[in-house]
Amino acid sequence: MAIPRKTASLGAAALIAFGGVLSTAASCAGSSCVNSSCTITFTDGARTVEVLDITVRLIDVQGGQARISVGGVPATVSVNNTQQVGPFNVTAEKITPSEVKLKISR
C-alpha cells in the first residue's frame, strides 16, 4: 500500500525536527562569565566549551574526580579543591556522572 506523498513528507519533516530537538538536548555545556572568571556546567555528555579565549574539555569522570583539559593543559580535579592549570585557577564545584560544574579564573 502506497503512502500519500503529503503524509510521507509531513512524517519525514516531523522526524527531522524531532531528531534535531533530541540531538540539541542530548548534551549541553553552559557558561556564565564575569570579568575574568567563568562558571562552566557540563551536562548530559557535553564535552567542550569555549571561555576566556580557551577551550575547556571534560575528558571523563571517575570516582568523584573529573579529568579535564584547559587550553590544552590536562588536569584532574576534585570537588572543592582549587588548582592551577596553566595560567588558570580551576575549582570543581560539583562532580557527578551526569554533571560537572567548574569555576575557572585567570
TrEMBL record:
Residues 1-29 form the signal peptide. The keyword Signal applies. Keywords: Signal. The keyword Signal applies. This is Uncharacterized protein. It comes from Actinomadura rubteroloni.
